[in-house]
Amino acid sequence: MHTPVLLKEVLEYLDPKPNQNFIDATVGDGGHAKEILKLTAPDGKLLGVDRDIDSIIRAKSNLAEFADRVLFINESFGNLERIAEENKFGAAIGILFDFGMSSSQLESSGRGFSFRKDEILDMRFDVKSQLTAEDIINDYGEPELCEIFKKWGEEPKARLLARTIISERKRKRIKTTGELVKIIESVKRHFGKIHPATLIFQALRIEVNEEFSEIEKALFAVSGIIKKGGRAAFISFHSLEDRLIKNWTKDLSKKGIIKILNKKPITASVEELKNNPRSRSAKLRVIQIT
Fold it and tell me: Is residue 183, in this structure, part of any structural domain at all?
């Protein structure tokens, strides 16, 4: 099973107790959810949401032992308010958002999330969505590509990369991650641990899935979904996400709607970093509804 990041810290802050109800808004493979369900036995319920149907299938298998204590919904967490209302899940004491990708998505989805594998340029979490990474790379103009790379990837060579991509696609349509990586590597040399394609792949994935608008919709709904005194935990993996969560919590804290439980984001322990290098960039922020 996918190893959940910052598991000890999430459980410490959300503090699940017997018979309490929780929402895992990004259930993934069910790693965090499994431990929450153990602690909320015998009658605590969990609403598990994910827009990737393959993740829902894996989570159902991994959480089969909890049977009817889990309700799975294959939708974006941007629709969380409606999902909770439709499923009469208004008594939750806590909610978890993990904005990272599971190792299953990176390694075996076949949708081109990883620059380390040569796959189709897809990058959709929800395969029912229309827009793919291939569409963006081949159909967007230079200003649009440049804007995406700058805004969502904070890529310093955004303009040169956009120009090079457009030049290359005139020869033939760019269809695979391998083809895109070669183009990126022709512009950016490999220094240190970060692969030259990292920021571009991040930017494309965010654009394809409209990730930030979905996060903003979910944040707007949080205070109305969980009980007074309930908690919400957010795990982010890059500075853009963390900045969004930080600014949102500051704003609501000033209005007296929430209490910030950790002024600085919690990061992985030395032990976790050894066992799960993927946790290196994870940051946890937790709030409480007042």
Answer: yes
Q: 4-27 burial string, b = 16+ CB within 10 Å, else e?
A: bbbbebbbebbebeeebbbbbbbb
**Is residue 31 one of the residues assigned to a domain?**
yes
Residues 85 and 218 in one domain: yes
| Cβ-based burial of 84 (10 A; exposed 0-12, middle 13-18, buried ≥19) | buried
Residue 154 domain boundaries? 108-209
Kindly indicate the confidence band of residue 1, based on its pLDDT and cuts at 50, 70 and 90.
low
Question: Tell me, what DSSP letter sits at residue 3?
Answer: P
Predicted TM-score of the model (pTM) = 0.93
Predicted confidence (pLDDT) at residue 284 exceeds the cutoff of 70: yes
**Tokens of residue 273, six digits:** 């970093």
Cα–Cα distance measured from residue 58 to residue 22, given in angstroms and rounded to the nearest whole number: 19
Residues 200 and 217 in one domain: no
- Number of separate domains in the chain: 2
Residues 67 and 16 in one domain: yes
By CB atoms closer than 10 A (0-12, 13-18, 19+), residue 76 is buried
Of the residues 158, 184, 209, which one is the last residue of a structural domain? 209
Reported as half-sphere exposure (CB side, CA atoms, 13 A), residue 142 has a value of: 10
Tokens describing residue 245:
């969560």
- Identify whether 1 is part of a domain: no
Give the Cβ contact number of residue 186 at 10 Å: 12
Residue 91 has pLDDT above 70, yes or no: yes
